[in-house]
């Protein structure tokens, strides 16, 4: 009985360890293989300290059509209640489009991050909260001015905070349910919403979801630092301190010395999109 309990504890700890890692959307969407509409380009830093060359980013044209099953974000658990969305991005000047959208299995958009002027953050949980009229709107912000921006969004309980370019912080109410659920049986769509005509065009270096709302506040330290700061030679998920935001179970796991072996109310069919 003790051995079975210990084995169960270890397996649960391994799940927590795996899902504590940032969900690298660019990797999940296979940007590295340069699908149609995607090419490599210079990123946020044309020259970075202790680096042999510039940051690597991807230039996205309107021809790009990228999607993946949402389950790939957190394959071992559900979508986190509190989380951070982190991106280093340079949208084409003047565009107004969704950088990412997450749909449930019924084709309802649950999550969406818009880039452009006065961008909206779309969030709708399993109870339909908040409604479209209450989606957080960030007036006075323009993410499509032709410049690089480091955008970090923290979702914590009933509040959403945007940290723009490591300096400006804007918080809005997020009237969601006490225990919100984001369905992971649908799809993740990059650069637009299903049926939208507007699509994202521009450059993107990072796009990650971290299962901790605190990660947004340290984005420019741990994930996308200034050009004077060296980072690992990896274009995405650049986190030199991955232990910062993980559960204490991770400590327990390693101490055992066991090696680890939604279009506002419109419903659309997802069957033909991702073969679900």
UniProtKB/TrEMBL annotation:
SMART domains: LamG, TSPN. Residues 22-213 form the Thrombospondin-like N-terminal domain. Residues 1-17 form the signal peptide. Residues 81-212 form the Laminin G domain. Pfam families: Laminin_G_2 (PF02210). Keywords: Repeat, Signal. InterPro entries: ConA-like_dom_sf (IPR013320), Laminin_G (IPR001791), TSPN-like_N (IPR048287). This is Laminin G domain-containing protein.
